[in-house]
Amino acid sequence: MSPTARTAPKKAPAPTPAYAGRILRVDLTRRRCWSEPWDPETMREYLGGAGLGALILYRETATRGGRGNVGWDHPDNRLILATGPLAGLPVWGTGALSVVTIGPMTNGPTSTQANGFFGTNLKYSGYDAIVIQGQARDWVYLYINDDVVELRDARFLRGLDTWATHEALEHALGVGGHRLSVYAIGPAGENLVRFAAIHGDWGHVASKNGVGAVMGRKKLKAVAIVRGTRPLAAADYRGVVQVADDIAHDLKTDPSAKSLYEYGTLPGVVNLARLGVLPIKNYTTNTPWVDMSEWEAPRLREAFDHRGHQCNACGMHHCHIVVLRGGPHRGTLVDEPEYEGWSGAGWTIGATDKDGIAWLNTEIDRACVDVNEFGWICGWVMECQERGYLSEQQVGFRLRWGDIEGAHRLLQMITRREGFGDLLAEGVKVAAERLGPPAQDCAIYTRLGASPRGHDHRGRWDEMLDTCTASTGTLESGVPVHLAELGLPTRINPFNGEEVARQVVGIRGRRHFEDSLGICIFTARTRIENLCRALNAATGWHYTLEDALRFGRRTAAILRAVRLRCGLGPELEYPSKRYGSTPTDGPAKGQAIMDQWERMLDLWYAGVGYDRRTGKPLPETLRALGLDWLARDLWGRRA
Description:
The protein has helices spanning about 40-45, 50-60, 120-125, 160-175, 185-190, 210-215, 235-255, 260-265, 270-275, 295-300, 340-345, 355-365, 370-385, 390-395, 405-415, 420-425, 430-435, 460-470, 495-505, 510-515, 530-540, 545-565, 595-610, 620-625, 630-635; strands at about 20-25, 30-35, 80, 95-105, 110-115, 130-135, 140-145, 150-155, 180-185, 200, 205, 220-225, 305-310, 320-325, 335. With about 650 residues, it is α+β, with helices and mostly antiparallel strands.
């Protein structure tokens, strides 16, 4: 080419419908914010949410040389708040976000979801994700209002719980209602409680693997987004509306989803009790001692005065704010507990006072810790005191089953890291291991450091296998939905290890696909075909069910690679002694999962195409997923 020759300027690629097209980068150390575009090919391959977060986590959290990974409290750890292509569109529950980071419970990767209005406000502000790095010198919050993106002084928010933080920011910014989405940490996150969560929009919580502690370590108190004014396009808007109507019809009429539409997760209390899956008194029994007809969903809902507070574009009948009608906190505004609130703040600790449970559940949200982990911690302390494994002097007071006020006192000790609460703030696994047997034998956790969702997995083996093998510190494959769509049997023997393992393998990928769309998992209980239709109408693509599962399994493989780089191998894929114990009563009495555990692991590894000894996805598995680059990273020349 001659020195005077000029090339024609490159045309900017046409924007991909349904995407804002920019990622917001925030460096807290340098107090710098900037945006960067991401290309349509990456959008198609990684979608957003969990998929995009997994890619960024893999690329940006390796130590020098790529053999190790930064820890959860390192400045180079990334905190990724990402939504997906359906956020902001008129499909039900499309205000969701995924929080992806290295979490302190496992010191490994996590992907945990929350709903509300954050995802929509972020998209309308012109961003698909926020990637936060570094550590601030003093407390700040991130403020986004269209083109105004600023790190602002948050010292006036320090010590406030999550509700008070939201109220203070509404007052300071002069914006309220759903126009302002605030996701914040409470005192637990500030004090680096290892199971601290991130709370947003009055009752929505990204709760798993201590993501709130990561935010606290970075001294980021909150992210506040004013609903932006940027337009959001769809390739086929009429098609989006049509599939939205079809999904809504599915949720209202399909037997597997109708109760969720009518009552949210409230029916779970009675339904799981009938199956022996309701966790009662720290797994010491599966037999409720009260009249369970009082716990049917209509009775739970009738017990309180309600006002709706649903998520963006959603018609599901849950996420309510309620007024307590009785008890010492009568007249207080609280969240209507979802199932895991009734479980973690109630049955797990032997409590059945509905007003008390609803109040404690909200106090847990306001302090901002994971309600499940708090339930396992509190129930463990109650049992250990009852058995004489922990003294009143050690704990600081006597804590008995069902003591709501005592549980709240323990919550405050944990949140502030006071006395015995300082040890409990490390989570069940660390606290139990430091005390050792026999107290340790009563604790519920995985050897990875995570803890189960609010179920008794001794009666739900698929979730125990999923939890122990997951890379995220929580369920990774998820609860089976529309199994026939995936070519799987609609019924299996839940206590046959081989059948259970094959089912967990077969549904693998669905959850990560859902968590990358910017949609709530409850409104995603429709068929995957419908989710693909919504995605295709939004973007103009041609995603199929097979594409969706391949995408989800690709995301799982990337997260597995991060987990292995964090030093978390297959030797840790086991439940604690109590978690894997055999129920002594109830519907699952005598069903011993540990008798079949090794066989289940063997089948799971063979089914997902991972190496049983090293835990690594096999080269041929990675190549089939289009991850040749990851195969070379993990296997070198052998790939």
